[in-house]
Every structure is written in structure tokens, then in C-alpha cells.
């Protein structure tokens, strides 16, 4: 079974998707980290961001692996580095590159083939896995998302101001909705879940309920184990 979780930046996708995958015993796929990894490689290589073909060629040469909660670039764990503000600022060059997206969507589909997967990103239910059995659109107010992003940055030792983070998120929301490829949309058939005022546990409870509701109508599907291994 494939469960897609799409939504804007700062909605809590990565945190709850990891938790949901652990609870269900599914594989977790962080596709946003894959684009960030290409951007990191571009920074390291010093690519010309105004030459999309150069970044696409670099992406084709990389080995990107998602190993549980970790992201590997040519065997190197870059999980923390790809979340830096420097990488965030240039990730759009990878995300807006049609050839890079084609390569990474193929990689995402290959990773999901034959597996039970919870995958999160910006176009998972609309482009990568349009036939997914369960689609969720996770959102939150801009103010709540900015506070979460600020906490993340502070946890990484980066100084930031809430008003600047909020401005950056609002700008990114506009850009994400207008992107020529992989634009942020609510996928057809997706259930929208707003996380304002909810704890991570409460959000995961809600998402688990949605997944189990999708499984219930299909009598041939083996029931998912409850947390702790009980049906």
C-alpha cells in the first residue's frame, strides 16, 4: 500500500510521516530530502544555477539513498546538512528542474515498488503516485508553520527571527503554488488534515485512522497490525 502525504513547507510532514510509518510498519520516503540532496551536491560542485542542464547532469551522476530517517549522498550521511538555510535557499533550482524531477520521481517509484510506503513531499499524490490507495494533504496556518520552522532552525544552531521566517514561508507558498512542474496542489481524492493546535501524537492518530479506513472496504487486504503488534 502507498500512502502519500503532501502539503506546504512547515506543516509537519516529515515528523508525522516518520511516526506514521513506524507505527504502521511501513517504509518512510522523504522526497523533499532528495531534492535537497541534489541542491547540496550542486553547492559543493559549484554548478551554475542558470544552466539547468548542468544540474540535471550532476543529478544523473549521484547515488541518492533513503535509509529510514537518513538520506545518503554517494554513501555519505547528509541528513542534517540538507536542512541548512544555505541548502534551503537553492533547493528550488532542483525542484523546478524538469529533468531532475523526472529522475527523482523514477527513483521514488523504484523505492516504493513492492513495498508498503508512507511518502511525503509536494507532488506525491498528484504526480509521483497518482493511483496511491491513500492520499493525505497536511496543512497548518502560516503562523504555526513559521513557529515550527523557527524551532527547527534554532535546534540546528541557526539564529533567525519569526517575522523573517514567516515572510520566507509566505514567499515559498506562492512559489510552490506557481511552479511550472511539481506545483503544490491538493491531490484529487486527498483528505485534508489541519494540524493547528494538535500534538504530533494527535496528528499521527488521525492519519492512522484515515489509512485504516482506506483499508477497511477491501476484504482481500491483510489488516495492518496495531501499535505493539496487536490487531
Question: How would you explain this protein's 3D organization?
Answer:
The chain is an alpha/beta fold and 231 residues long. The protein folds into 2 domains: 1-11 and 119-211, Rossmann fold; 27-115, Rossmann fold, CATH 3.40.50.300. The chain has helices at 13-24, 31-45, 52-61, 85-95, 98-112, 124-128, 142-155, 162-178, 200-215; strands at residues 2-6, 27-30, 64-67, 70-73, 76-77, 117-121, 134-139, 191-194. The strands form 2 sheets. Strands 2-6-1-7-8 form a 5-stranded parallel β-sheet, with helices on both faces. A 3-stranded antiparallel β-sheet has the order 3-4-5, with helices on one face. A hairpin with a 2-residue loop joins strand 3 (64-67) and strand 4 (70-73).
Question: Concise description?
Answer:
The protein has 231 residues and is an alpha/beta fold. It has helices at 13-24, 31-45, 52-61, 85-95, 98-112, 124-128, 142-155, 162-178, 200-215, and strands at 2-6, 27-30, 64-67, 70-73, 76-77, 117-121, 134-139, 191-194. The protein has 2 domains: 1-11 and 119-211, 3-Layer(aba) Sandwich (Rossmann fold); 27-115, P-loop containing nucleotide triphosphate hydrolases (Rossmann fold, 3-Layer(aba) Sandwich), CATH 3.40.50.300.
